[in-house]
Specification:
This protein is an alpha/beta fold. The chain is built from 12 helices and 9 strands. It has a single domain (2-328), classed as Rossmann fold (3-Layer(aba) Sandwich). β7 (268-272) and β8 form a beta hairpin. The radius of gyration is 20 Å and the shape is globular. S-adenosylmethionine binds at residues 70, 74, 87-88, 91, 120-122, 125-126, 151-152, 155, 183-186, 204-206, 209-210. InterPro entries: Methyltransf_34.
């Protein structure tokens, strides 16, 4: 145990910000599991991480997402390691920026508690994003911050346990509680998240992944339930990749909500709404982790992987543009599906 702790401390660098430290711990933990599975054979370990990264590269292409990705093997520890290494920091930092630019958490310092629900929060990148924003912008908040991550437990349970330990070790803060909930939009016994107390519901790089299932009865029921049971005033923060179909679908889903970010202020992107054929604006933020000196992530793995394999597939994603829209629920919706 002491040996494990000191090895991990060697990974963590003084200049890293809190979320960087948490993610480093998490990655270290999952790497330990992968090495164990590879019987400490470094070549086999590296090859399996590379395979996972290549599969992910294919699965997350816009066309693949449109065709359906429910079979992605997120539960494979090598896939999890690949995900954490390649995507989680970009995802977390971009969510933090989206929260900032959309003003979703502004003017809440007088609340006694804030509940943020992250739908499709994966291994916890969204938790890191909310924490990143919280640490930077809400230092004076005296209430309780509850972050609830909803995603498939059969896929991500191993990461959730490690993330909780990492948060406690690096950011122990009595104001923060983080919990994890089993959620699957495609099944009728896991598609009704408990959102009654949610102030903000994030959907970060999530709607693209369930887009291909959008007409399935359980999925329709799920989003109707979410819209029905969220309290009036709750905010829905949708963000992710620039994928026309998903943007249109989400906009249609939140049709009865008030759109708080029309996107007419730059920076934004424009796209053609497929149903109305009108040109619409959507706000957009840009992240470049290379410019963010407080991260210092994973140099050891990076050197190793990128030296041996094609960087297009295995490289950590450091740069991205993220579109977003913030909606507010105004009143109760009138139709029920169950
Ligand atoms: C691209 S990942 C995004 C994860 C996280 N929000 C992030 O930005 O790193 C998409 C997430 O959607 C989740 N997802 C896919 N299908 C789902 C379903 N049927 N029900 C619930 N979550 C699902 C996956 O498990 C995965 O965590």
């Amino acid at each position: 145990m002491a040996e494990f702790e000191s090895k991990m401390q060697a990974w963590i660098k003084d200049e890293q910000c809190e979320v960087g430290r948490i993610l480093t711990r998490l990655l270290f933990d999952i790497q330990g599991k992968c090495l164990e599975e590879a019987r400490n054979d470094v070549n086999s370990f590296r090859e399996r991480v590379r395979n996972a990264l290549c599969k992910m590269h294919e699965a997350h292409g816009v066309l693949a997402l449109g065709q359906g990705v429910q079979k992605i093997t997120y539960q494979d520890p090598f896939y999890q390691l690949g995900y954490l290494y390649k995507l989680s920091m970009l995802s977390g930092r971009s969510l933090s920026k989206v929260i900032y630019y959309s003003r979703a958490m502004e003017n809440r310092t007088m609340q006694t508690s804030i509940t943020v629900v992250c739908l499709g929060g994966g291994p916890g990148s969204d938790v890191l994003g909310v924490l990143d924003y919280f640490v930077k912008c809400m230092a004076h908040f005296q209430g309780q911050l509850n972050i609830q991550l909803y995603d498939r437990r059969d896929k991500w349970a191993a990461c959730w346990g490690s993330l909780k330990t990492a948060i406690n070790a690096e950011l122990y803060d009595g104001r923060i509680s983080v919990s994890f909930h089993d959620f699957d939009v495609t099944t009728d016994d896991k598609n009704k998240p408990n959102l009654q107390n949610a102030d903000i519901i994030t959907m970060h790089y999530f709607m693209e992944e369930v887009y291909s299932e959008r007409n399935e009865p359980n999925v329709v029921e799920c989003f109707d339930y979410i819209l029905q049971t969220a309290k009036p005033g709750a905010l829905f923060l949708y963000s992710g990749m620039f994928m026309y179909g998903a943007i249109d679908w989400v906009h249609q889903l939140f049709n009865n909500c008030e759109l708080l970010t029309p996107g007419t202020e730059p920076p934004h992107r424009w796209y053609q709404n497929h149903r109305t054929t009108l040109t619409e604006w959507i706000p957009c933020i840009e992240v470049n982790l290379n410019h963010e000196r407080d991260l210092q992530l994973f140099d050891d793995i990076k050197g190793d992987l990128e030296r041996f394999y094609d960087p297009k597939e295995v490289a950590q994603r450091c740069h991205g543009k993220v579109i977003y829209r913030l909606y507010r629920k105004v009143n109760n919706h009138s139709h029920w599906y169950w």
